[in-house]
Amino acid sequence: MFHIFQYQPLRLITQTSLSSMCLKLMLSRPVAFAQIWKSWFSSHSLLGKKNIILMGPPGAGKTTTGRIVGQKLDCPVIDIDDDVLEKTWNMSVSEKLRDVGYEEFLEEEGKALLKFSASGSVISLSGSNPMHAAGMKHIKKNGIVVYLDVPTTVIMRRLKSKQTDRIVGLSPGVSLKDVLQFRKQFYKRWFDIRVLCGGDIEAEVVAEKVIDAVKRYQDSELETFISTRSSRSGRSMEESSHKLYFSDVVTQGLALDGGLFVPERGLPKFTAEEWQGLIEVTYIERAQVILERCIHPADIPASKLAEIVETAYGENFSCSKVAPVRHLAGNQFLLELFHGPTASFKDFALQLVPHLFAYCIPRSCNYLILVATSGDTGSAVLDGFSRLHDTDKQRIAVVNFFPEDGVSPIQKSQMIGCQKENAWSVGVKSDFDFCQTAIKQIFTNSDFTGFLTVEYGTALAAANSINWARLLPQIVYHASAYLDLVHQGIISFGSPVDICIPTGNFGNMLAAFYAKMMGIPIRKCICASNENNVLTDFIRTGVYDLRGRKLVSSFSPAVDILKSSNLERYLHLIANEDGQLVTQLFNQLENQGHFQLRKDLLGKLQQDLVAGWCSDEDCLAAIHSVYSTTGYILDTHTAVAKVVADRLQDRTCPIIISSTAHYSKFAPAILRALRIAEINQNPLSQLHLLSSYSALPPIHWGLLETLKKTGNGDHQVCAADMSVLMSHIETLIQNHFM
Fold it and tell me: Least CB-packed of 60, 195, 228, 616 within 10 Å?
């Protein structure tokens, strides 16, 4: 058997004699001691007996990178091709491939890998090693597999001037591009860490990225979360020692102090080269890469995350591009976010989050997810959680509270139609703000939550945009939209764009701002409101004032919101994580109905955000105008954003308008905008009438199917009373879990 073990003489020295020797060396030659200790500690603390295993396609630079990493860590370096295969076979790899052919070569290569063993080394695999499952399982047992992810176009360019007779699978009729694409599935199966290697990045830089990635992999302590209402200086030792990780905040939802969770060290940054490496890849690949950087592998391993992302976006979206960008007119582009099963942008988070949640929660407890919705979240969360595996549905259920008279008829029909054995809708005789506030109060009611845990073994969790996991998929589609414009040749990477979003709870807008922080060149984020324009006033004046404000029902119900929950996360960010200030502001809002930002914070805010609003009349006029000139039908929320974009954009750069829902969900308003005189009150009839227009985009497939099955359906309705809501929750728990 082929063995390489790192010789570690320091381990043979007793602790006493080691201390004595170190002391003498430190006193006599302090510089030499520091260098020796740094070298020994860097390799031993990072590797121990584990190996760093470099994996990637031919031409990825595994051998060169491996040598540099080994030099930096002062540990053995092994190249599988040169040091194992060729020595085992007594011939070159290319000769062996010619002698035995493609399939036999893979088998022989795998057998050699099964006989190989090493410890504390840097190992560079061959490009075809990952295609042999047994061999990879063997070598992975004692190593951290690092995938050098190099864009296919870069690999093709690198290999153009090199001999390719060592590349397994390359033959007449099979192109190099085909081989590289085929192998990706195997690389994705085995890696623990991905290192993006875009462009003409130097091997020295790649080596540093590998070491940094391994350090991150081994230290999950770096990626903890805090509440927006906690302050580093004000936290007790007990609070500081009780660390919260991604899996904790996914299940907990809301912080115990009433604040929202944010990453303590902020979001990861991508370099321009890393973003450019994602231009050519699919939406699913972009999502996986971005989420890998935001979710530590100790919480969800890369292989499991890949499986979840594929499940979420693979077959549940009607468009292969998942979130396509369409040119509307002039320098305006639409980011179509309605191709999911329930026809709104909420599907991006809520096809993914249920699977993240199911993976993260402990198996010993049941969970009831509480959701408040102003329209689109309800059906999306019901659909998402109903798609879990049967075993997960037995321990995870969801209840959706929505304003009984505050959503469109089609939205209500859809929420009723999406009810399943573990997913229910409850109409509340109030508005969205009451529903959202009630859920926050229930989460912070320790007597009630404690009672549910003790009596029924059931914990409560949140799936609203107050849950941190809801925001991450939204970051992905904002980044992807920019990359699509680059891919289409509309802009070059680095050129700025503006983004305009119909904004109510501020989650979608916050995600766009996070994408900007992570390196996407977004210039201005434009908030578009309807007549419930508290956010517009706040962004213009710094005064958040609910006194005397009543919620106005509009044709764009998803933004009929007065209290924007995710604004708290943004203010925490621009206030340099001053939890005391955030607590003061939101306590004042709760108790007095208003607060005012300091001038310096307002200045920061206005560097990032601009805002406008439009009336229902302007909204309908925009729908009619766009349809008349382009044949495209905007939904009511997208129309709000279109009106505001027209007013506020300066036309010096492209603007991406988030099209957050399909117009089918708001058929009565759309038919009115198209100036149809008589409108049948039956939602299904309304959709059939709209489909007769043969407009773009066509009627939403999922919505039509849901309404065909629904009829009028049944759902529970309750009064706007906290005790009544809590009683409903207890009854649902008894019926499902007991």
Answer: 616
Inside any domain, residue 147: yes
Residue 59 placed within a domain? yes
Catalytic residue list contains 115: no
Whether 118 is covered by a domain: the verdict is: yes
User: What is the pLDDT averaged over residues 36-65?
Assistant: 76
Percent of the chain with pLDDT over 70: 91
DSSP H helices, 337-431, are: 346-350, 353-360, 376-386, 390-393, 409-417
Domain of 166, CATH number, reads 3.40.50.300
Number of domains in the chain: 1
Q: Which long-range contacts (CB under 8 A, 24 or more apart) does 242-248 make?
A: 245/220, 245/296, 245/298, 245/299, 246/295, 246/296, 246/299, 246/300, 246/360, 246/468, 246/469, 247/299, 247/300, 247/360
Distance CA 259, CA 669 (A): 37
- Confidence (pLDDT) at 41: 42
**Distance between CA atoms of residues 134 and 412, nearest Å:** 52
Annotated catalytic residue, options 72, 96, 209, 346: 346
Q: Report yes or no: 78 and 124 within 8 Å, Cβ to Cβ.
A: yes
In a domain, 502, yes or no: no
- Which structural domain range is residue 144 located in? 51-218
φ, ψ (nearest 5 deg) of residue 194: -110, 135
Question: What's the average model confidence in pLDDT over 411-435?
Answer: 90
